[in-house]
């Protein structure tokens, strides 16, 4: 039972919160709408001030919602616009804290996984993949995630997936080669094997041949073979990023997280964000039960147990440590038993 006066106070609090969030959304939306390369510096500065003035959770959720609405559209987004949006996330990720990039990345990856499973006709998948690719280009996420996505797409190997693989390789292929040439080589081998064992109608497609040619061009480091490949815009924005990021930690803030971890974050917690330990994580429960089982191993006389009770050793761990100290022969024996 909630008394009427408390109920009233809660309702006014909720209204106040809703109003605050609405105002915050309006401000962030205004900044995102004006976003362009020349004013990126001032907008990222204003966003940092908003992060300092409001709760991180509210800011992360508001920013992610607005960016997703702006970038994930049924028509293909202009590459330049996409890069500027991701660059803003990257600057905030480095200057404010890694939870900014982590929150946005998780939302993008979950949406991408959801749309991949459904037969969406629009260009939403490409737009989401472009967001992930540029998050990698601007050092928010490690190449591990990109390889996970590529492996997943190659393992399914239908027309839609081939299109997405080509799109991703065109955006980040040469960066992947620089970061992990061996993993790229393994991926190319797997794609060739898939293409050889694919159905006849897929094998004859020029798209598949084009994908394999693109992969070989990547392996041989031949940029001319990839039509429309232009590293210039990304390089230009990377230079801008270096001027905007306060700290010099480029690689340390990269989120080294796999696709599986991101998709199962609700079940196993988010280990990649500092301070987000989670009591519901199965790993934590397992270790507790294991230690308790181990503690009961080894018989101790009832006299020692009585002493432990008198000394108020009221938990299993305390009793076990007390018994070990009282019954061991020397310090080495004590050390061994305590370790066990």
UniProtKB/TrEMBL annotation:
Major localization listed first in the record, in broad terms: nucleus
BP terms from Gene Ontology: ribosomal small subunit biogenesis
Coiled coil regions, renumbered to chain: 181-208
Keyword check for Coiled coil: yes
GO molecular function, one term: RNA binding
Ranges where the MIF4G domain occurs: 25-222
Subcellular location as annotated: Nucleus, Nucleolus
InterPro entries given in the database record: ARM-type_fold, CWC22_splicing_factor, MIF4G-like_typ-3
Cellular component, GO annotation: nucleolus
Entry keyword Coiled coil: yes
Keywords for the protein's UniProt record, in alphabetical order: Coiled coil, Nucleus
Subunit structure: May interact with EIF4A1, EIF4A2 and EIF4A3. Interacts with PPP1CA and PPP1CC.
Stated family: Belongs to the CWC22 family.
Record function comment: Plays a role in targeting PPP1CA to the nucleolus.
Designated name of the protein: Nucleolar MIF4G domain-containing protein 1
Organism expressing this protein natively: Ceuthmochares aereus
């Amino acid at each position: 039972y909630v008394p009427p006066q408390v109920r009233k106070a809660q309702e006014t609090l909720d209204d106040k919160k809703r109003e605050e969030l609405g105002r915050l959304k309006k401000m962030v939306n205004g900044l995102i709408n004006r976003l362009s390369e020349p004013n990126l510096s001032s907008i990222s500065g204003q966003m940092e001030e908003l992060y300092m003035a409001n709760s991180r959770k509210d800011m992360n959720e508001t920013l992610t919602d607005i960016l997703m609405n702006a970038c994930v559209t049924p028509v293909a987004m202009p590459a330049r616009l996409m890069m500027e949006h991701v660059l803003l996330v990257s600057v905030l990720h480095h200057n404010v804290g890694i939870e900014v990039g982590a929150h946005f990345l998780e939302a993008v990856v979950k949406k991408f996984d959801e749309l991949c499973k459904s037969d969406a006709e629009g260009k939403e998948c490409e737009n989401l993949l472009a967001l992930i690719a540029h998050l990698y280009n601007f050092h928010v996420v490690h190449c591990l995630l990109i390889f996970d996505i590529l492996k997943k797409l190659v393992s399914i190997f239908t027309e839609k997936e081939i299109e997405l693989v080509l799109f991703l390789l065109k955006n980040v292929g040469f960066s992947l080669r620089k970061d992990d040439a061996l993993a790229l080589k393994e991926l190319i081998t797997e794609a060739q094997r898939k293409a050889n064992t694919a159905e006849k109608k897929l094998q004859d497609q020029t798209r598949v041949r084009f994908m394999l040619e693109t992969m070989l061009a990547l392996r041989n480091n031949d940029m001319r073979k990839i039509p429309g490949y232009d590293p210039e815009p990304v390089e230009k924005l990377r230079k801008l990023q270096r001027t905007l990021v306060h700290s010099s930690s480029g690689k340390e803030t990269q989120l080294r997280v796999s696709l599986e971890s991101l998709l199962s974050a609700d079940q196993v917690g988010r280990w990649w964000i500092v301070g987000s330990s989670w009591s519901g994580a199965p790993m934590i429960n397992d270790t507790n039960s294991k230690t308790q089982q181990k503690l009961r191993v080894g018989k101790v006389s009832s006299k020692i147990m009585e002493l432990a009770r008198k000394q108020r050793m009221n938990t299993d761990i305390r009793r076990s440590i007390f018994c070990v100290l009282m019954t061991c022969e020397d310090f080495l024996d004590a050390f061994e038993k305590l370790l066990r």
